[in-house]
Amino acid sequence: MTRCDAGRLMAASAIVSAVALWWEASCWYKRGRMISCWDFVITVRARVRMQKVIRRMLPLWVSRFDGGGAAQIKFTSSDVIVFTPPKSGTTWVTHMCHQIRTHGGALTFEDQDDVVPWIDRLGTAYLRGTRFNDEPDAPHEAAPRVFKSHAEWKDRPQGTYKQVWVFRDAVDMMVSVSRFLPSLWAIERPLSEAEMCSFLLHAGDVEAAISSLVAAWDHRHDERLLILFYEDILEDHLGTVSTLARFMDVSLTPAELKTVVEQTTQQAMLNHHLAFACVKQARNAYAAEGLALDPAKLTGKVRRPTGGKPVLPEGVRAAVGRAWQHLAAQSTGCADYAGLRAAKGAWAAQ
């Protein structure tokens, strides 16, 4: 082969690689996994930093139980699992469920993981020190048993339990993640809200949330499945508690219902901030890095209002819209998340 032929071959190879990269980027863009090509380029270092953080956390998430912690639980027909994408109302709804089953009992736990186990991480170093980490099937404080999970629909554990699925606007979800994780995982150089949106979109978190929403919506007629939207809970706190109580087959007196609502307000939960701050999770994450934790510096799962609005690229919501069109528009008949919320309200009113 002559030098000229070798040059042509290298040029052809470069063209093929460029076309393949363009095609892949085009697919990502259409699926909403890229805000724009320019954003993808300028946020590459931030995404790499976040990938390093996740690789650092991975050993803490390995369960010593065969099949994971959830496989050790003998689920019953009265059990309730609250499924949500991250930062979509998990803490709030699981606390409502706990308050309902205790009929508005006083908040006595130090860490919410001690009363509502996170089944995805049981048996791991990350949940070391929590009540159910070594005994996933241990008795609960009250009936019915309540669990939480961030698993996607396709990865749900087997069993005959009841399912509560909670969803939230994807942009708000991503912003909340960016504010919550740095203090929890000891991230020295946190991503900005815009960078976190870029990371989560490309990592497929938004696609996963929408896919689970579509699957849950397809099963909305199942009497053992309940779909809630975070924004609807904000608008009708009392109605949500009443709906959850009926779904859980727990009868509350008017006085108990009032107490449950009062004890699941943002302010009531902020009064017990550390109980909802994942202190044990954070302590284990910090210890793995040889760091000491100051619990007072944890952002926590219930944040105090800041009044500040996130500064995001204009294309973030458009990317979420493309993801919706790719995954949900045709199957749900709704143009966007807000449209599905409205459809759910109309369906529930029938």
UniProtKB/TrEMBL annotation:
<feature type="domain" description="Sulfotransferase">
    <location>
        <begin position="78"/>
        <end position="271"/>
    </location>
</feature>
<dbReference type="InterPro" id="IPR027417">
    <property type="entry name" value="P-loop_NTPase"/>
</dbReference>
<comment type="similarity">
    <text>Belongs to the sulfotransferase 1 family.</text>
</comment>
<keyword id="KW-0808">Transferase</keyword>
<dbReference type="GO" id="GO:0008146">
    <property type="term" value="F:sulfotransferase activity"/>
</dbReference>
<dbReference type="InterPro" id="IPR000863">
    <property type="entry name" value="Sulfotransferase_dom"/>
</dbReference>
<protein>
    <recommendedName>
        <fullName>Sulfotransferase domain-containing protein</fullName>
    </recommendedName>
</protein>
<dbReference type="Pfam" id="PF00685">
    <property type="entry name" value="Sulfotransfer_1"/>
</dbReference>
